[in-house]
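Re: the 176-residue chain
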Amino acid sequence: MNDYKKIFGDLSTIRNFKKKEIILEKGVVENYLSFIIKGSIAILTYHNGNEICISFSIENSFFSSYGSFLTKEPSEYQVLALEETIIEHIDFESLQKAYSISGDHQKNGRKIAELLYIKASQRTLSLITKTAEERYIDFIEEYPKFLQRIPLKYLASYLGITPVSLSRIRNKITKS
C-alpha cells in the first residue's frame, strides 16, 4: 500500500475498497468520518424498491452518513464505492480524542461539519428551485471529469429524473 499522508494522524486508518464494494450498509450505524484519497463513492437509499442516489463524493472530499455518525442511530443510507477507492477514516471516539488533544483538530472538525452541512443544504435547495436541466448543467460544471466516472443511472437518480429524461437533456445540451 502507498504511504498516504494522514489527515487525522495515528488515530485514523487507511482502507481500500473495490469497485461496487459496499462501504456502509443501510441500517448499520455509521462509525466513521471518511476522506477520499482516491476514487469515488455514491450515497444511496431505497424507497418503494427504487435505488435513489443522494450524493456523490470524489477525491479530496469528506463523506459520512453524518446523522448516523453523530446520533449512533442506524444509517438510512448505503455508501457504495463507484470505482477502486482508497479512504482514510476516523471513528467517533478517536475523533473526540483528537478534538481534546488540539484546538486545530477542533477547528478542522468544525470545518468538515460545515462542509457536509453546506453540501446537503445546497442539494436540497437545488432540488426545490432548479429544473433537472439546470441541475445537470450545475453538476457538469462542478464535476466535469467526474461525469465520465459514474454510472448514468446514479446521475439520473441524483438529479431526480429517469435515465430516459437524462438522455433527452444530454442530447439537447449536446445539440446546443
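The chain has a mean pLDDT of 90.
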